[in-house]
Batch of 3 targets.
Target 1
Amino acid sequence: MTPDVTTAAAGTASLVQSVDWVAIAPPLIAAAIALVVLLADLFLPPARKPLLGWITVAGLVAALAALVPLRTGSRSTFCLTANPDACSYTVDQFAFVIQALVLGGALLTALLSMKDTEEKLPAGEFWFLLLSSAAGAALLPAARDLATLVVALEVASLPAFALVGLKRGDRLSSEAALKFFLSSVTATAVMLLGVSFVYAATGTLHLTEIATKLADVPGQLGTVAETGVVLTLVGFAFKTAAAPFHFWVPDTYVGAPLPVAAYLSVVGKAVGFSGLILVTVVAFPAYADVWGPALAVLAALTMTIGNAAAVRQAATRAHSAVRLLAWSSVGQAGYLLVPIAAAAYSGDDKVGATVAYALMYAVVNLGAFAVAALVARGKPLNRLTDYRGLYAERPLAALALAFFLLCLAGLPPGIIGLFAKVTVFSAAVDAGLGWLAVVMAVNVVVALYYYLRWTAILFRSPEPAEEASEAAGTPARPVRSRVPAPLAVAIALTATVGVVLSGLPQLALHFASVTLF
């Protein structure tokens, strides 16, 4: 909505603006429910604390419902009175899709966390931090000035530090939170320095105005502008876990509660990539010759390092399943970078491939973490060997995990994973980045090894020692516990969405061809 500008008697424009409450409703609802949960936690007795989780779920559902009026068209608010086209908050197709992704990811994380908040984690703090982070994550894709972008990024990130370290008394959790905090603070400092240089060179923080002014920077400010662009990109490279800024990922995922690791792998990644898309495609198109080649090299390096490290994971190592998912997420980040790099060579329509791939990845990766959370209830070390014979013990969970892994690998019946990879591959080829397409193809083949190895473990017979103990009349495994209902719903929901998408794989191709800006 454009600002409500009225003319005073003196002939000057009023600075009073009307706020488009419908446009800002999704992040606003999440923030409001966070405050409700924080206050309710003060008055609810311990026996009633589980109610906070259901309030959180209801709030996230309401935030998702608030997106319905925004599905068509574009709405803007907090615009400059002198230039109504320069706005701080815009909900277009890009913002709508990313907001749906992050709020849906937060909702699934809430379902995964229900039992943990009853047994291990402080409920009030957990739900407040999750909702606060989700509010920042929902705000970021709609941010259209650098100040709002940085604030939204930090609102999404700061609660995540505490979520990672919320397992009190756990050494791994404390180390993970510290490493995550230090790396993220470093990224923010570098990014803020870059933003200050960009502001010094252009005199504005609005992305559209920056794009116009960077196209005609005075000669004496050219170095300042170019340095600002590079430093801003380095800051986002940390946030997206792009190599060589990925070192915090494995230990952070292992030390964090599993639902939080799932949240970081999907929502955290969506936040970083949406911010990177906004600054490159919207604000810095004039410097495409700088960030295009840089992102192409980062993409190749990231996918290679991530897949190489995932292949080396020993199946008997403690937490090897989570470590494999962590290194897999680094490799997947490399694929997500490819269309952004391609946009520097052939236009911003290529970023649709990144968004299409992110939607597929979010669904199946959350599903994989959901099954990992289920297995961890009986085997807290969560080794790959702990998944041996899962099909015999929990056939539906094993089939769901096998489907998720095949989607990530891009193999049938996970057709949506194959088509998502095709869209990314096509973006590189169309942009003339043939060498990057070759690197991606090699990495996809390498990734098949560890995805198929894990899939095969699910269907193997139990260990011989376990079979002998069963013959002796003693149980080799603990009595199978009942799956918590919220966890079962999360697994079923992600599996259903994945199957539907695999039945309609052309949606990935169609979405990738849509111009988002």
Target 2
Amino acid sequence: MPEVNDPQRLGGWTRFVTARPRLSLLAALVITALAVLAGSGVADRMGSGGWEAPAAESTYATKALEREFPASQPNLLLLVDSGGASVDDPAVAAEAARLAERLAGEADVVGVRSYWQDKAPALRAKDGKEALIAARIEGDDKASGEVLDRIAPAYRGDHGPVRVTVGGPVAVRHEMQTIIQDDLLRAEMIALPVTLVLLVMVFGSAIAALLPLGVGIVAILGTNAVLRGITEFTDVSVFAQNLTTALGLGLAIDYALFIVRRYREELAAGAPTRTAIGTTLRTAGRTVLFSALTVAVSLAAMLVFPQYFLRSFAYAGIAVVLLAAAAALILLPAALMLLGHRVNSLDLRKLLRRGRPKPRTEAGAGWARFTALVMRRAPVFAVVTSVGLILLGLPFLGVRFGTADDRQLPASSESHVVQQHLRDGFPGSPGGSLDILVEGEATPAQYAEYRDRLAGLPGVLRVDGPVIEGRSAYFSVLGEGEPVGEASQRLVKDLRAEPAPFDISVTGTAAVLVDSKAAIGDRLPWAVGIIAVVTLVLVFLLTGSVLIPFQAVLLNALSLTAMFGAVVWVFQDGHLSGLLNFTSTGDIETTLPVLMFCVAFGLSMDYGVFLLSRIKEEYDRTGDHEQAVSFGLRRTGGLITAAAVILAVVMVAIGTSRVTNTKMLGLGIALAVLMDAMVVRSLLVPTVMKLTGRASWWAPAPLRRLHQRFGLSEGESGRPEAAQSIPERDAEAERVPSGA
């Protein structure tokens, strides 16, 4: 059939992306190559922290103490093991003193202090066989990591009568950054081939299966270049690279699946290549654009939080979503223009069939029967499914928030081993003390009176200090219980409330947690409000309904309950810790639930938009509400399920990380995606729309006029192919490979 260039059927965008397809793809190849160069080394410029609030009291106090009293904030620890001897043995003491003196002479190392210097009990193990040399490496994460790489080999290992192991916060951060990079490469090596196999099974055609991977690679490499540029202006967390890979592959596959599927439908209906692309972009292309906006908004909401850990995911997420959508809407149509009908080439499933004829079945027949069953028993399915999801989420009511520490790392990692020795064998608890920065003139009597009042507070075991330097000083307060337990958090509030004759600022692990929780609590309503309002507006513009946007937001939130319940049951309470190979800390890092909510909500809306767009298209065409719901599920049920399974594979690959937070992120979002696609989209959406009936599409007259003027929809009433009956359209769809 000759190509059709009817301006009524070919929009300006179609003409633009199909005019010079070879030139478009060549330009994309050049830009991608430049992105590879621009994004090289991005991981080395990223940080592994970012959980603290920059403007918080604890952050201010920590920086002031690092500047004025570096010995009070050591980030490098040398654990000196004397073997069978006592750490007070003359030979052990002499070797340890030599190591401490040598460390004090290293460039960029300050505040060296050892047990052998002043016999501080906190630096000596209870059994007398181990003791510590503490110091501070100056500089940011990158600079301190470089210093650690330079000096650590000279101290690690055997030195005469002692054996030295290197640990401390700087070693934890550096080891975490290295492990994350290694794990990400392994995850990509797992995800890419498995994803390709699944795409071949879905599409049948090896050619069609390669297209989503191409879109994903462009999005990932482009985002790395964007992140490299952002690191010139602000801090970016190394964890954001995991989201780049997961969303780059996941969303590229979603968008490419949707576009290629629609394009093949149009080809099967007899449309010429250019016309098929035009129809695809007017329909599926608009849906992809809507989906990208909803996901980007969900991720952009993390910009309201002050912690750079969360903001980093917004930078990475927005970039990868927009680049995936741009590649799907520009490069993919150009590739389809060149391929034409060859997009169906290399059907590898023929090798499995070995010449047996493929059984002919009505397209989507299984989904049609399933949807009919669900809608006939709508009240039962709605109640049972909703109650089941709520029950799965109940463990989250017992969530306890904490901070990330060395136990994020594998139990065998050197820095984790050092910190575990401190937890098990040293008095007090590493990181458990609270430091009080004092600023302003004070007399010895005022210091003594303030110290006595601190010692009398509930839960205080010991007060050390003051250590005075000019107009500043600091006290160390050791409290009862765990470093970030409820008792320690109450003590932070008591210390801050205690009157003092000078300016004070409290810091320490518990203080950082208190400030982080306060910062998140203050900004969380804004983030949720932004996501909810923008989602409501976008879904209204897509559907023209007032009720459906609220249904979408509510059902999306309900789909996340299983994820949050599982996070607490598994990672906080420690169930399956042996199987999944992680150390449970008894709490959840404060920022993780926020991050998981924003990412999972956006991905859920991604599938919601795909489904609602086809339902809306059919409802506009026929005016039959139940028929439209059935048609939408019949056309997108298999597609959404396949996309969810593939995205879950990518997230599970990320979840194989040896760092607990990354494992939690990957496995948690994989669960959320599967629950959304297989439970919410398959059961709750059709039952709720059945119960609400035609009222689902109601909107007051002013909003109807607003939608008529500004709304976007996938379907176009009045186009020639819209007059076909549903059986005729399904018969044409049979000519498309059923997996697509």
Target 3
Amino acid sequence: MTSQVSSPAEQADGAGGAVVGGQRTPASPGGKEVRRLDRVIIRFAGDSGDGMQLTGDRFTSETASFGNDLSTLPNFPAEIRAPAGTLPGVSSFQLHFADHDILTPGDAPNVLVAMNPAALKANIADVPRGAEIIINTDEFTKRPMAKVGYETSPLEDGSLDAYNLHPVPLTTLTVEALKDFGLTRKEAERSKNMFALGLLSWMYHRPTEGTEAFLRQKFAKKPDIAEANIVAFRAGWNFGETTEDFAVSYEVAPASHAFPTGTYRNISGNLALSYGLIAAARQADLPLYLGSYPITPASDILHELSKHKNFGVRTFQAEDEIAGIGAALGAAFGGALGVTTTSGPGVALKSETIGLAVSLELPLLIVDIQRGGPSTGLPTKTEQADLLQAMFGRNGEAPVPIVAPRTPADCFEAALDAVRIALAYRTPVFLLSDGYLANGSEPWRIPDVADLPDLKVQFATGPNHALADGTEVFWPYKRDPETLARPWAVPGTPGLEHRIGGIEKQDGTGNISYDPANHDLMVRTRQAKIDGILVPDLEVDDPDQARTLVLGWGSTYGPITAAVRRLRLAGSPIAQAHLRHLNPFPRNLGEVLRRYDKVVVPEMNLGQLATLIRAKYLVDAQSYNQVNGMPFKAEQLAKVLKEAIND
């Protein structure tokens, strides 16, 4: 086996497709050479029934426990079970891990593990020349190859000569390793992903104890199955140690200088968001109520929150999207932290109730895990195309704040921020994540509870207004002069009876009003409340006084930052800024934009943020757009930004 040497720029940003290698260390106890690398990108690919997501998850968990920085990209089909061995049924999991700070799952894999012909054909275009390809030769028979259009075997026709090919009969070796377990061949074959995991764990010196403990726990009620998987896992490890085909193994040291001191764990975006919601509810001293309807890729939040009743969390799986948000808004009226989770199609169904929440001026969190659209679109692929829907997708003037996390771990902080705004300003708030963040993972520093913000709110407890005759009454729409928030009155509090509903309210009293002047006042007041939300000024990273600014939002942060690192190391000055708050924008955004000759806005849509920027600030923002269901690649963005700098 050989390793490739990357350019200094690739080494720095950690997003290129080459393995940094060449530093030899003493041979392993088995007599094989050990080579030290600073980063590796591995992609596991196979049929959707081959367990590639589980394999990737386990390799990721062991890598996180070892102390590497990492970033992952799960990629799976939308079909519940596509025909076996077909291209639509291919599932993959890409993991980038390093001994330094990295930002993306990597542009291209250094190692591809292909479990069948479909997996090879679906992924080979992404694999650079000279990379390692481990192929399960048992699946390369006439029928599986014919399913994906291979007329001749790629293992024999020379089409893979540009790669370091390792043909391994994974299925046969797994069945042989499990021959004493009394399993049928079909049952034994299911463990071939564990054999592959064991082989890759040997190849990159990953810990094994955690995987074995995981398997024993997962199959606790079926100890024979647990032991069979462990034996297959160990057999893969031993195969790597003894076979002559794998003459080199690799070490990637822990990223000891990449992180501040603290306790870390690997976390996905949806899990971080779930923990953020729980933490926010605890900091607000409110019960958390989730009203939701299952939808990819948001369902994991419902699954996770349902496990935490001990923290005062109540989850309701409704019969549809409308019922889910209706229950969440009802919970908010009752004094709880109301949350609803969904994706783009669900937001469309929830829009009327979001408008009702705007009218009622109650705190409500709408979590939109964006995916490819329109309609059902691409349920398992990522996109950023719901921004304009979140901004304007309701009848009438119905402004709603929008918060967007930028990395999987940042979903925790974004959830706290969104809840802060909802509670302080008595308004529904959109939290816009996406499939890339939701399913991807990275190390997360577990915060100290003492460092979390105080989100406690004061409910109305008595009269707040004196009439002309001196009578003290409760006015449900009398506003805080700083936030313009109205009182939050819990039903059943004596003396605080008031009307609710979607018909326009009279300012102060909350009585139904059709007065034109009052409606004009209420519309402008609701808008002023959102415009007045306090959000931090936009921070700009510009060490070289550049003339070009790249502006991003949401999950484009990793690829943009990796591309910016490349350009700067190559001597090209460029400034970078990233928005978390999309409504309202930071107050200094206009001044920042006017500071630069060119503004480039990369988005996984057709230019929605760029449209808002151009309209509000009259800045000629240049869009760079991609809507193929996958995140940007750093190399791709670096090229585009370089052209913008030189234009």
